[in-house]
Amino acid sequence: MRILLIILLYLTILSSYVFSDQQQVNIGISLSLTGKYASFGHMQKNSYDLWQHTVNAKGGLLGRKVNLIIVDDHSSEEKAKTNYTNLIEKDHVDLVIGPYSSIICEAIMPIVEKHKYPTLLPAGSADQIWEQGFQYGFGLTPPASKYTVGFLELLVHYKYKRIAILNADDSFSITLARNTQKWAKRLALEIVYLNEFKKGTKNLLSFSQGIQKSDPDAVIVCGHLDESVDMRNALKQINWYPKAYYASVGPALSEFHDIMGEDAELTFSSSYWEADVSDKYVFSKEFTQLFTERYKQQPSYHAANAYAACMIIEQAVEKTKSLDRENLRQVFQTMNTLTLIGYYGVDKTGKQIRQFPMIIQWQNDKKQVVWPMEIQTVAPVFSR
To answer: What's this model's pTM, rounded to 2 decimal places?
Structure first.
């Protein structure tokens, strides 16, 4: 009997050892895999899956396999809040990474703040996220207040003066429009048209007609993919095109060209990273090659941002030698490091301060970097 008890005790200890050896690092992410932000969400998901494969091939984190728990929030703030609550309270994940879009990032911040989960936000850039006193959110991308600065500088350089600004009424687009006005005034540009429409409005014909009457050199549309497409179609309906058409977010995706075809030509946008200049950043070229081989498409900056968030987590865990969330929060707050999208470094609010957007333009069925001049792949082209 005594021998049997010893054997049972040994088996219990052995099974506990095997379990701990197989323990995983669970990281929860809510993504827009359906709904209005699905294009961006799938780009991010591909990067997360790629990183999971890559990091586990290297031995995982702290010698433990990384397991990503990715759930769909349907591009909804309420669903995302439910997802993060469940990931933290029910799944008890070790870490979380933020969702897509500023409006959804802002919605989930009180939840991660309450539970003290340090959260990298690879797709949150509305300035108001960083103005509410949160201590557990950290941005990877420059704030929306600086998103159009490069394009405005480009206009000044080429001596264009008159601009029209149109925005959707979500937080990112409003922030972008307001700060575009501010920077335009600083650069002595003349705002000849300013208007706003409800998010989800598809027919923008009346706005295109109003813009044409104001006779701007450049049209700036503050929104996402749908707005960039819908406004371009509205301009086509009136058979008019400004000298420069800029739309935020959407034209940085290959999907914009897939939808618009030849009508994508000459469209400007902002980007935080492009494959054609990937040799300027650490691991960027390798990431582009791995992503393209695995998914048969080039990654957008949304994909690169997602992978960069994972790189930062790797570095932070390696530095702290633990998954202690308070220690990781301190590292996220203070670290200055180079990732595949450039430098990471935040101010005391968590706002990214070491990154800047570049300006891209669709030319001959290809995205080209046209600003700043130091890294441009081609010169910009303006309509006559």
So the answer is: 0.80
